[in-house]
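Notebook, bench 3.
Goal today: get a predicted structure for (rape) hypothetical protein from Brassica napus so we can plan the truncation constructs. The sequence was checked against the plasmid map this morning, with no discrepancies at the termini. Length recorded as 139 residues. Pasting the sequence as submitted so the record is complete.
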Amino acid sequence: MLNSLTDPLVWDFELFKVIDPSRSNSSLSSVAGTIGYIPPAHTMRVTMAGNVYSFGVILLELLIGRPAVNEGRELAKWVQSHSSQQEQPNNILDLRVSKTSTVATKQMLSALSIALACINISPGERPKMNTVLRTLTRI
């Protein structure tokens, strides 16, 4: 997740940012995390389930080739809407990688199922990180 060999794109997980309400037209007064990586129904507390969600978004970025937020739309929500429409999962993968071989496509689809579990709307249904790691190493 680098835009060059030295500039990281993902660096501020778990940093607390305060939005000045006087400069915002929304009712949100503060947020913990980075837009696009924040789980739905997020509280101000950092949780393991929230970290798993954020990891799932990073995994989606790698598999799909899109940023966490693009044109105001969060990648996780976009993927969830496409997966609920029974769209072929390989249609959302980054073709620059998936079209290289059937093995690559199979591995990406396996990783996509992990990413989808990580971004589950219900925090209690998200896998534990050690399970995610074990599953990814098997792919």
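The longest helix spans residues 48-64. The chain has one domain: 2-137.
Flagging this for group meeting.
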